[in-house]
Write a structure and sequence with these properties.
- With 350 residues, the chain is an alpha/beta fold.
- It is 35% helix and 19% strand.
- It is built from twelve helices and ten strands.
- A five-stranded mixed sheet has the order 1-3-2-4-5, sandwiched between helices.
- Strand 9 and strand 10 form a beta hairpin.
């Protein structure tokens, strides 16, 4: 994992080992009477928390006996969600509740345009009426990390017009209404609590208009590269890997580490139109270097070779060895010039 591109909230959650962050565990231990459900990885955030231009602030994760368990039918599902929080999985967890993807925010979350963040990340039935849980929540290091991320990273971006914040549950976020300008929109308390699960239609429309203008200001029409992005998503559909919408709109190069894949990508333009280049490496699948045109056509480009040819003739074997390394050096240099640095691999330990 490349921590240079991570938000502070993501960096905090890279420390998650089981279902409770190690910094929060002592607080729970001091309050044995709490009723938070800690059986599953916490819903700290859903969406691209590092880059999504729309940020929706909520209170805490809910718990519904008989339904929450459906999100975690086996150990693989638990691992997926934990890896997602840690930044080791790009695609959304496969058993994610329809609460996130079935509502009006779903398409934005799926494409990388929005992230939903809970101030208190752990699940309970009704935090607003749980006095002991409120005591616990106020001491959580995760709450402090979430508030710090909002105040130090997100709100300055919103003041500069680069992010849009929908404050749907403000109680635990500790920010006064109206302080941060036009790109921070609060839900009225009477309409936000307790039954409206997402901001009302008018506020979502306001955010949608902002998002359209935001993407338009970043560069060319994102739809022109959609066929290439769709082809990329089809290639990695098994692992739930797709390119984030902000990267598509801004034509911003980047890299992905997920499910054992190391993927570098960049956008370009030549006499035949726009294209997407990617270089993918997986220890079980080898390496591929592909250019996808804006109509979805694919071109296969040079890749590094992992198999060195040889010969029973020592002189011939030496010649083949020299040519093998020379070719790989040339290809490696070409890839570095494209921004694909194959010498750099990300790991959860970085």
């Amino acid at each position: 994992m490349d921590h240079r591109s991570l938000s502070s909230i993501r960096r905090f959650w890279t420390g998650l080992k089981e279902t409770v962050h190690p910094d929060d565990q002592p607080i729970f231990d001091r309050h044995p009477g709490h009723s938070f459900n800690l059986d599953f990885p916490p819903p700290a955030f859903i969406g691209d928390v590092d880059h999504a231009p729309i940020v929706v602030l909520m209170s805490n994760g809910g718990y519904n006996d008989g339904k929450t368990q459906n999100e975690f039918p086996d150990e693989n599902a638990i691992r997926e969600h934990r890896d997602y929080l840690r930044g080791e999985r790009v695609g959304l967890p496969r058993y994610l509740s329809r609460y996130y993807l079935g509502g009006p925010l779903g398409p934005w979350i799926a494409e990388g345009s929005a992230v939903l963040v809970n101030a208190v990340p752990y699940r309970s039935l009704k935090l607003s009426s749980e006095k002991e849980n409120q005591k616990v929540a106020g001491e959580l290091r995760s709450l402090a990390a979430h508030r710090s991320w909002l105040k130090e990273e997100v709100l300055p971006e919103a003041k500069a017009g680069r992010r849009f914040v929908l404050v749907h549950r403000k109680g635990w976020w500790d920010i006064p209404a109206g302080e941060y300008g036009a790109c921070v929109l609060f839900s009225e308390q009477a309409r936000a609590e307790p039954n409206r699960r997402t901001p009302d239609k008018a506020k979502l429309g306001h955010a949608e208009n902002w998002l359209r203008q935001h993407y338009r200001s970043l560069g060319p029409d994102p739809r022109s590269i959609f066929p290439a992005a769709q082809k990329f998503a089809e290639r990695f559909a098994t692992w739930g890997i797709r390119l984030p919408m902000p990267a598509l709109v801004a034509r911003k190069p980047g890299h992905i580490y997920s499910e054992g894949w190391f993927i570098w990508y960049r956008f370009g333009l030549d006499q035949w139109g726009e294209f997407l280049d990617y270089y993918a490496n997986h220890r079980m699948s080898g390496e591929s270097h592909v250019r996808i045109r804006d109509d979805g056509r694919e071109e296969y480009l040079l890749t590094m070779s992992n198999l060195m040819p040889t010969s029973s003739d020592p002189a011939e074997a030496e010649r083949m060895k020299i040519e093998y390394y020379a070719r790989n050096r040339e290809i490696a240099q070409m890839l570095r010039e494209k921004g694909f640095d194959l010498d750099h691999k990300w790991s959860s330990d970085e």
